[in-house]
Write a structure and sequence with these properties.
Blueprint lengths: L3 E4 L4 H12 L8 E4 L15 E3 L2 H7 L2 E4 L3 H4 L10 E4 L6 H8 L3 E5 L10 E7 L5 H13 L1 E5 L5 H8 L5 H16 L4 H21 L4 H11 L2 H11 L2 H18 L5
Parallel strand pairs: 1-2, 1-4, 2-3, 4-5, 5-6, 7-8
Antiparallel strand pairs: 6-7
The structure holds NADPH dihydro-nicotinamide-adenine-dinucleotide phosphate (NDP) and (2S)-3,4-dihydro-2H-pyrrole-2-carboxylic acid.
NADPH dihydro-nicotinamide-adenine-dinucleotide phosphate (NDP) binds next to helix 1 and helix 3.
């Protein structure tokens, strides 16, 4: 089994991706090295054999696969030779080209998971350079499948779009949910009850939309055709152009992802 080194291994996304993969035996704790600058590495008590370091060069020397899991601006501070390694980057907005030039990497995978990885419910598009072997691609697929649904894509540029669409994870639905909670509280519902009600609503709606053969657009039509209270609400939201606000938000997130870090 290959040794994997995760730079930024103590961070939010690294933990969310690694815990499901460790639990499934896709990576072995004795074959995993995590780095951070501070030495903070919580959330891995169940796997005492994982190694931790603050020395990225040591991590790289001991690893066959190096996963980059730091924030985009922190990547610029890294000076590493990753030639000969399989490099997996989840860093938003940093292209293969930049990764190759900055780190001498050739075999590169870029992926865009989201924070639902901890619940094993991420949607994770990923893209690999031609030089990544079938065996390595199979490992990448299994690794990301442990924390959700891994989806290979054939155009790197689409990753910037997915960074906005699904990389944001719960953030955009949370904005919608929070508006509903605030409205409910304004209507006299106790805050705890409003939060509980809307949490349950989003879980139910999410599971239904994931499992039903009916698409979201068809669901909206079903309720509009019903001509009841929900149709009154939907019509008012459509007339207020809720879709335009969502389009603007996704476009802004996509622009920010595409801006990226041209050079490190
Ligand atoms: N969070 C999310 O929902 C998503 C994040 N991403 C991407 O994942 C990447 C990580 O994000 P996230 O986990 O949220 O960020 P966090 O800030 O939670 O984690 C980043 C970690 O990197 C460590 N770090 C920073 N610099 C170095 C360094 N030079 N050497 C070793 N470790 C370092 C930090 O620890 P310390 O300060 O101790 O060094 C920190 O624990 C980002 O590039 C982001 O774009 C992608 C999709 C979703
Ligand atoms: O908001 C961010 O920048 C990170 C990257 C993609 C999702 N979250």
């Amino acid at each position: 089994m290959r040794t994997i080194g995760v730079i930024g291994g103590g961070g939010w996304l690294a933990g969310a991706l690694l815990r499901p993969a460790l639990a499934d035996g896709i990576i072995r704790p004795e074959r995993l090295i995590l780095s951070s600058r501070s030495g903070d590495m919580s959330g891995f008590d169940a796997w005492p054999r994982i190694r931790a370091t603050t020395d990225n060069a040591e991590l790289v020397a001991a690893s066959d696969i190096v996963m980059l899991c730091v924030r985009p601006n922190d990547l610029a501070e890294l000076s590493l030779d990753l030639s000969g390694k399989l490099v997996i980057s989840v860093v938003a907005g940093v292209t293969m080209d930049v990764l190759a030039r900055s780190f001498g990497a050739r075999r590169i995978v870029r992926a865009m998971p989201n924070a639902c990885a901890e619940q094993r419910l991420s949607f994770t598009p990923w893209f690999a350079t031609d030089s990544v072997s079938d065996d390595e691609a199979h490992f990448v697929f299994r690794f990301f499948s442990a924390s959700g649904r891994a989806h290979g894509i054939t155009e790197e540029a689409q990753l910037d779009y997915f960074t906005a669409l699904t990389g944001s994870g719960p953030a955009f639905p949370a904005l919608f949910a929070d508006a509903m909670i605030r409205h409910a509280i304004g209507a006299g519902i106790a805050p705890d009850t409003a939060v509980a009600a809307v949490r349950q609503l989003f879980m139910g709606a999410g599971v239904l939309m994931a499992q039903s053969e009916t698409t979201p657009a068809e669901l909206v039509d079903v309720f509009l055709d019903y001509q009841g209270t929900t149709a009154a609400g939907l019509t008012a939201m459509i007339e207020a152009d809720v879709g335009s606000a969502i389009f603007k938000g996704l476009s802004a997130a996509r622009r920010r992802a595409a801006k990226g870090l041209a050079a490190l």
